[in-house]
Amino acid sequence: MQKIHLTIIAVTVVNYAMMAIYSIPQLFRFAGGLWPFDMRIMGYDQAAAQLYLDTITPEGRLFYLEVQQMLDTYFPALLALSLILTLYRLAPRLPILFAFPVIAAFIDYTENALVGDILLSDRVPGDLVQLASLMTGLKYAFISLTILTILFLWRRGKT
Question: What distance in Å separates the CA atoms of residue 56 and residue 104, rounded to the nearest whole number?
Answer without folding.
Answer: 27
